[in-house]
Write a structure and sequence with these properties.
The protein is of the alpha+beta class and 781 residues long. Among the domains are: 75-209, Beta-Lactamase; 386-552, Alpha-Beta Plaits, CATH 3.30.70.270; 559-660; 678-767, Homeodomain-like (Arc Repressor Mutant, subunit A). Helices cover 53% and strands 14% of the residues. Helix 16 packs parallel to helix 18 (595-615) and helix 20 (638-677) crosses helix 21. It starts with 6 loop residues before the first helix and ends in a 14-residue tail after the last helix.
Length: 781
């Protein structure tokens, strides 16, 4: 039998205690939550539903109605100013097109609106999509059905108005009761837009179907034992989720009044209605001033509370039983490794454990002995790990060790305190990776590192290490800073790396520092120099201090230099484009601009060039697609960039010039053929350009350049030539001839004929048998 202080007993007691605490906490939390926050949860849920419903009504109905008003008022073809104008009786022919526009709006929004009306207050004229044109609309049959919004807008200092819901019969003239109709809500707005209702020249009214609001309430609001409706600021119910919602206005009158008196845009209140407790939730519709209401019986959710209580109790009892069972299982499982560990400790120590001690004290004693052994082996482990060496070097270069990494002792690298001067040399080996295999690169890199560290310089130590970014760092530690020593080491590194990699290598040198803890300053300077290797490929060792001044410069390349290349590319001037490219490259190489800024400009230049190619839908003949950015980032230096960019520009301009020349001749012939076949039709520049699939401006330019005549004169000449031939046949009247060649007005045709041939068509017809036809002054090539 196990002792009470054994590990198994402790584990079992701990698990059971945790289970008891958790179960009690869960019971308490559930009970408090469901008892104290149940009503708040109900109100919050209803409020969320109301917010979603209000948002849906705003976007699906109210905003659409306002959009219909904007479409009617901004319709450029609709002569809205015709109704208030005194010239209306003489322009009744234009009213039909205006009414058609209103009917089209109703047809396209038939699910939402019943009709659209235009009313001129000063002239009492109404034009309706449903009732047509009515003079003295404020009198006679039907006037009662629009008098509410007409009179309301006359008294309104604002520019819009929402009316109460009202029943409008299908037949507004008949007075027979019981006819069919619709419940409508009218949205009226002044025209012009900013005029008040009392001062407006025209009122635009849109009849909204109450059924559209009811459908949203039915779809969005819960239907079980609830009533949902929309009320106006005056307390009238506009629409509800049930058809008899208006009849319930008295039932909810007190709730509506309390909600309207509140300054909150949304909220909930509890009231007794018909002897039952209800939760009334409301939400503003800000664009109209209406409120959405939802009435829910308070006991709708409380009836579930008893079930929830029993469920909570059952779950807690079940959790308690399961927890006790799992506690025993987990205690057994967790004690098994402890038993195995004790047996292993006994086998390794060779002595029997103290019977009075429990398992934890035995394990603690074993770990103390193990810690002593690990401490004695730590130095050997550090010395044998190449990862620790790299970690130490990276910490020195970064200036402070990254969290969680071993800092290490610089003396481990052979940098003893006697070295008082340090310098970093950075070697960029990325170019070698492009033509060497990975295994060959690793072999070459290992050879270089070993060769450098084997160099014995008096009073100096060389450390070399490959960095994660495909660069090689060389750290020189010495007793005294020597420029000659640094030059010799730089020359030796460049010579050896060129032999190993069989390619040109660039080296950068940082400054001397007087403390190993400041080595990162030298490394940072070497990195800064290396940034300019791309722009100075001819420089083997980057050490010029002027480059550091460039890095701090705030100068920018002049804007004309940047925009000149784009302008020349867009106009496809090859020589000028190449000259602009040369100017840009020269500015980057010789100017005082930071390297990062220059790289940014180059990338933007590539993106700009790509946009130029896409704008003309250029596809290279060889590749079939463009991947300019990836081609650009693969270039080794700026000279390769210039050669690549110049070659691409030359190919692009040559291809587009050939393509444009072929397209121009084809487009001219197609346009001439279309014009000849469609002389009576619309031959505007836009219409013909769309038929030959080019822009009107480009088509006009082609006519001027290829035919030496502007487009309008060409059309006139072709039509006059056809008219002359028809007149010579002597079988058609002047009106028929004018219509056959595309002139809707005979007088204008006669004027143009006289301008071309010097006489009217009638005079020409009388002299056609005795005189030679006069030659047109327009060249019809």
């Amino acid at each position: 039998m196990r002792k009470w202080n054994s590990a198994f007993a402790v584990l079992t007691a701990s698990y059971i205690s945790v289970v008891l605490v958790i179960v009690l906490l869960l019971c308490s939390a559930f009970y408090l939550y469901f008892s104290n926050h149940y009503k708040e949860e109900l109100q919050s849920r209803n409020r969320l539903i109301l917010e979603n419903t209000a948002s849906t009504i705003e976007t699906s109905i109210l905003e659409r109605v306002q959009q219909i008003y904007l479409e009617v008022s901004l319709n450029q073809q609709a002569a809205l100013g015709l109704l208030p104008d005194a010239s209306l009786p003489s322009n009744l022919s234009k009213v039909s097109s205006l009414q058609d526009m209103l009917r089209a709006q109703v047809a396209s929004n038939s699910d939402l609106i019943q009709a659209v009306h235009l009313y001129a207050p000063r002239r009492h004229i109404l034009l309706s999509s449903l009732y047509g044109l009515k003079f003295n609309a404020d009198q006679g049959a039907g006037s009662a059905y629009w008098s509410d919004w007409v009179n309301g807008m006359k008294r309104n200092s604002g520019n819009r108005l929402w009316t109460e819901a009202r029943f409008v019969p299908e037949d507004i003239v008949s007075s027979i009761p019981g006819g069919s109709g619709s419940s409508l809500i009218t949205y009226a707005h002044s025209y012009p837009f900013r005029s008040s209702g009392a001062d407006s020249e025209l009122l635009i009214a849109i009849d909204l179907k109450e059924r559209a609001l009811r459908d949203i309430l039915l779809n969005m609001m819960p239907a079980r034992d609830q009533s949902s409706f929309i009320a106006t600021p005056s307390g009238q119910i506009l629409a509800g989720s049930h058809p008899d919602a208006v009849a319930q206005e008295g039932t909810y009158a007190a709730s509506i009044a309390d909600a309207l008196a509140s300054s909150e845009t949304s909220g909930s209140l509890s009231q007794e209605i018909g002897g039952s407790a209800y939760v009334i939730s409301y939400q503003d519709l800000p664009s109209t001033g209406w409120k959405i209401f939802n009435a829910s019986p308070a006991d709708l959710f409380y009836e579930k509370w008893g079930v929830v209580q029993r469920l909570i109790l059952s779950l807690c009892l079940f959790a308690l039983l399961v927890g006790i069972g799992l506690s025993g299982i987990l205690a057994t499982l967790n004690y098994s490794p402890v038993k195995r560990l004790l047996r292993r400790i006994k086998d390794l120590s060779g002595s029997a454990p103290d019977p009075a001690a429990n398992e934890f004290s035995l394990i603690d004693s074993a770990f103390v002995r193990l810690n002593d052994k690990v401490s004695s082996l730590e130095d050997t482990l550090l010395a044998s790990s190449p990862h620790i060496r790299q970690n130490i070097i990276m910490n020195l270069l970064q200036g402070s060790p990254a969290q969680g990494k071993v800092t290490g002792d610089p003396e481990f690298l052979g940098l003893s305190p006697e070295y008082t001067r340090y310098c970093c040399l950075l070697l960029n080996t990325r170019g070698a990776y492009t033509h060497m295999s990975l295994s060959g690169m690793q072999t070459a890199m290992t050879g270089i590192i070993e060769g450098l560290e084997e160099i014995r310089l008096p009073g100096s130590r060389i450390i070399a290490e490959e960095l994660p970014d495909k660069q090689l760092i060389v750290i020189l530690g010495t007793r005294e800073a020597s420029g000659i020593l640094l030059e010799q080491l730089s020359e030796h590194i460049v010579t050896e790396t060129r032999k190993q990699f069989q390619t040109g290598i660039q080296l950068s040198r940082g400054c001397w520092v007087d403390d190993i803890r400041r080595l990162h300053h030298s490394y940072t300077e070497a990195q800064t120099f290396m940034k300019y290797a791309y722009f100075l490929p001819e420089v083997t060792v980057l050490k010029d201090r002027d480059l550091l001044e460039k890095e701090q410069s705030l100068e920018e390349i002049p804007q004309p230099v940047l925009t000149r290349l784009k302008d020349k590319l867009q106009t496809r001037q090859l020589e000028e484009s190449l000259a602009a490219l040369e100017q840009l490259v020269t500015a980057m190489r010789e100017g005082s601009y930071p390297a990062d800024y220059c790289h940014f400009i180059l990338a933007n230049t590539v993106f700009m060039y790509s946009d130029v190619l896409k704008s003309v839908r250029y596809t290279p003949a060889l590749h079939g697609h463009l991947d300019l950015y990836n081609e650009y980032i693969a270039l080794a230096d700026i000279r390769h960039f210039q050669e690549w960019f110049a070659a691409s520009i030359s190919t692009f301009i040559a291809d587009t010039e050939k393509r444009n020349s072929d397209r121009a001749l084809s487009a001219i012939e197609t346009a001439k053929e279309y014009i000849g076949k469609h002389l009576p039709e619309d031959l505007s520049l836009d219409a013909v350009a769309s038929k030959v699939f080019i822009s009107p401006k480009y088509l006009s330019k082609l006519f001027k350049e290829e035919l030496g005549i502007n487009y309008t004169d060409y059309i006139t000449g072709r039509r006059m030539e056809q008219a002359r031939l028809l007149i010579e046949n002597n079988k058609m009247s002047v009106e028929q001839v004018a219509a056959s060649v595309g002139y809707g007005t005979t007088a204008y045709f006669i004027k143009r004929f006289k301008e071309v041939y010097g006489c009217t068509p009638g005079n020409y017809l009388r002299t056609v048998n005795t005189l030679q036809p006069p030659q047109a002054e327009i060249r019809l090539s």
